[in-house]
Specification:
Strand order of the largest sheet: 8-7-6-9
CATH class of the largest domain: Mainly Alpha
Radius of gyration: 25 Å
Number of helices: 18
Mean pLDDT: 81
Helix content: 40-55%
Number of strands: 9
CATH superfamily of the largest domain: Intergrase catalytic core
Order of helices and strands: HHHHHHHHHEEEHEEHHHHHHEEEEHH
Low-confidence stretches: 364-375, 396-412
Largest sheet: 4 strands, antiparallel
Shape: globular
Number of domains: 3
Structural class: alpha+beta
């Protein structure tokens, strides 16, 4: 079995960037690029795209005001979200032109014909639901009239594809605790290059703070604060917070083998300039960085490589265990950093509130949120106790086949539709959001309303507080998704 390898290709340095916010500037540039492609779709749509036509006839808004509002609409959304939906719509346009069809105006028969083509290509179970979401996304921004995407024929085709090709959701595996201990020793090893040690230190910070990969990029290093308790920081943009409000986190001063790893990495970090809006730069080689944010695939490859190298340093003679470790490390993903200590906490019987606060979930426990003034102190204490217990008992974590810790990805619920009652009454219940029953999109999950009496409001739930409680009981998967 091949060992994990480091990236072979050295990347060329980027041009010098004078901005102190290169990551934000890069994301804004990406948004501008996708906004231009979205506007190009509107131009091709002609009169069908009312954002670019009817708005020009406004009697109350000046030309500059209309232009500003139009640009705000075109630029709304996260760069990756824009890319996914715009690419999907462009593929629909390309298919239509190849079949001598005019993609505009949108018509349910054209969409059905395209969906049948996707089925013939043996598309995955999420492709047609994702297509519907992309059509709604583009149509909403360009003010294009959208046909009935709840057409029974389209739903039947979608259900058929899901039935034929549904797959089990892959879950990120946690780091073995012994490997985490070896990574701590790696950071403390002065004979290793500082660049490599800093990268591994960043990985350990993600593990001990249970951070997502993207969250751990959006951290200004000059705003990190170190004290006796640990390392405190703020992710200025996260999966659930894109309003620049910031999400606080803490990396406790603790370790399975050597808690000094946090201080070692902190000294290396502060030995270079911190005037940027991403935590550490992209690792180019073992001894050098590039002046740009880390990329996912390269980070995962380095992470697997250093994990195996660190484990080998600590276990040079353990050949039998080496094969098991190789297999495990080859399946690690960046999300493994987030689930490692959450998984350990679940199997160690820690409370829901402690785990929720460590994970920064939206609703870790109403009483904890209400009475905890310093939210970071609870997860820091939990991680310290958890590590101490695992070290004393020599890591007695045993997997329970009935216990699964996972986190839904952004696209896991693309096929979900939410509904509201057509004729709202005077009670608050009449304004609740509902969804369809699991496995049967023709009925409402709570069985209190007929789907014909409801209108679709898309696949986004504003907040769990507006979700019908009966629907929530019938669809715990949706609650789990919005709590993460």
């Amino acid at each position: 079995m091949a060992k994990p390898t480091a990236p072979k290709k050295r990347l060329k340095p980027d041009p010098d960037q004078s901005s102190s916010n290169p990551l934000l500037d890069k994301e804004n540039a990406e948004k501008a690029r996708w906004a231009a492609r979205l506007e190009a779709i509107g131009r091709r749509a002609g009169a069908a795209a009312k954002l670019l036509t009817l708005d020009d006839q406004s009697d109350d808004l000046s030309g500059s005001e209309m232009l500003k509002l139009r640009q705000l609409v075109l630029h709304s959304g996260a760069p990756r979200t824009m890319a996914i939906h715009i690419r999907s719509f462009e593929r629909y346009e390309l298919w239509a032109s190849m079949h001598s069809l005019d993609p505009f105006p949108l018509h349910v028969d054209k969409i059905l014909k395209y969906a049948l083509t996707l089925d013939q290509r043996e598309c995955g179970p999420s492709v047609i639901p994702a297509l519907k979401t992309s059509l709604k996304w583009v149509a909403a921004r360009l003010a294009i009239d959208l046909p009935d995407l709840d057409d029974r024929r389209l739903r039947a085709l979608q259900e058929s594809v899901i039935t034929k090709r549904a797959k089990t959701l892959k879950e990120a595996i946690p780091f073995p605790i012994a490997v985490v201990a070896s990574l701590e020793a790696f950071v403390c090893n002065d004979h290793r290059p500082d660049s490599s040690r800093l990268f591994v230190w960043w990985i350990l910070c993600m593990i001990f703070a249970s951070l997502r990969f993207d969250d751990a990029i959006h951290v200004r290093p000059d705003e990190l604060v170190m004290n006796d308790e640990g390392l405190f920081g703020v992710a200025w943009q996260t999966k659930v917070d894109r309003k620049r409000a910031g999400t606080k986190f803490v990396v406790p001063a603790v370790g399975f083998k050597n808690k000094e790893w946090l201080d070692h990495g902190w000294r290396i970090l502060n030995s270079s300039s911190l005037d940027r809006d991403y935590w550490i730069p992209e690792l180019n080689a073992r001894t050098s960085f590039l002046a740009r944010p880390p990329t996912y695939q390269r980070t995962v490859q380095w992470m697997r490589f250093f994990s195996f190298a660190a484990w080998q340093d600590d276990h040079p003679e353990d050949k039998i265990e080496m094969l098991k470790v190789q297999t495990t490390l080859s399946n690690l993903t960046a999300h493994s950093c987030r689930v490692t200590l959450l998984d350990a906490a679940v199997h160690a019987g820690r409370s829901t509130e402690e785990i929720g606060l460590q994970a920064n979930w939206k609703d870790p426990g109403p009483l904890v949120l209400k009475y905890t003034r310093n939210r970071t102190s609870v997860p820091a204490t939990m991680i310290k106790q958890l590590v101490r217990e695992l070290v004393q008992e020599q890591h007695p974590i045993t997997e329970d086949e009935n216990t699964v810790l996972t986190e839904a990805a952004d696209s896991d619920l693309d096929h979900i539709e939410f509904f509201t009652k057509n004729q709202a009454g005077k009670t608050s219940y009449d304004y609740k959001f509902h969804t369809t029953a699991l496995g049967d999109p023709s009925i409402i999950a709570c069985n209190k309303l007929d789907i014909s009496d409801c209108s679709s409001v898309g696949n986004v739930l504003p907040d769990l507080s507006v979700f019908c409680k009966a629907c929530a009981k019938a669809r715990p998967d949706i609650c789990k998704f919005y709590e993460t």
